[in-house]
Design a protein that fits this description.
This protein is an alpha+beta fold. It is built from four helices and nine strands, in the order E-E-E-E-H-E-E-E-H-H-H-E-E. It folds into two domains: about 140 residues, Nucleoside Triphosphate Pyrophosphohydrolase (Alpha-Beta Complex), CATH 3.90.79; about 60 residues, Arc Repressor Mutant, subunit A (Orthogonal Bundle).
Length: about 220
């Protein structure tokens, strides 16, 4: 959507940092820009908020345009308002981040983009505008919330092992965790429940499968 450059008023936009776990890596969704400025560069999905549109509704709409999904976890992150962040005019962006299980994804492109793809957080291309700062802020928020919420469960399939869950934490934090302490903590949270099913992998002892008690919400753990 083109910016209303003749209004003289600040333009309000949204941007969404969409995280998923794929190939044992934390990855995010990027869109290659079709138009100037930063034509041909990769950027975060988002767009101009309409005069009759709620900001969060805009973010949800742009997210669905990019992923084909609705009803996934979305959280407001921060407002980016540096005066020179957009070379065209004064643009204020309300950033969000979203978490998506990779098996649910069906990517799309919209009229303002010429490509879409997943990129490892450790191997990002140069990003347009101040989107690199948005990504860094979102990753810090995600990592911090692992300590006091159930946010990691948004990445989990319906059934999973405790090793699968620990791997999610380790990928996001980019460090190893003690297996015994991790399992003790997860059981103490009382946010997952053991099922009667097991997962068999080669000659290893079958691993018990778990499921999340409240998979559609993120709870704060006191």
């Amino acid at each position: 959507m083109p910016l209303p450059t003749e209004s003289g008023r600040p333009v309000l936009t949204t941007n969404i940092v969409v995280f998923t776990l794929r190939d044992e890596q934390l990855k995010l969704l990027l869109i290659r820009r079709r138009n100037a400025p930063f034509e041909g560069c990769w950027s975060l999905p988002g767009g101009v908020v309409g005069t009759d549109e709620d900001v969060e509704a805009n973010a949800m709409r742009k997210l669905e345009d990019s992923t084909g999904l609705s009803g996934i976890y979305l959280e407001q992150l921060y407002t980016f308002s540096a005066p020179e962040r957009d070379p065209r005019e004064r643009v204020i962006s309300v950033a969000y981040y979203a978490l998506v299980a990779s098996k649910r994804l069906q990517l799309r492109t919209d009229a303002d983009s010429e490509g879409v793809g997943w990129f490892s957080l450790n191997e990002l291309p140069e990003l347009a505008f101040d989107h690199a700062q948005m990504v860094d802020t979102a990753h810090q928020r995600l990592a911090a919330k692992l300590d006091y919420s159930t946010i990691a469960f948004q990445f989990m399939p319906e059934l999973f092992t405790l090793s699968d869950l620990q791997n999610v934490f380790q990928i996001i934090l980019n460090r190893d965790l003690d297996k015994r302490n991790f399992r003790k903590r997860m059981r103490a949270m009382e946010q997952i429940r053991q099922t009667s099913q097991v997962q068999k992998t080669g000659s290893h002892r079958p691993a018990r499968l778990y499921r999340v008690n409240n998979p559609h919400e993120v709870r704060i753990i006191k």
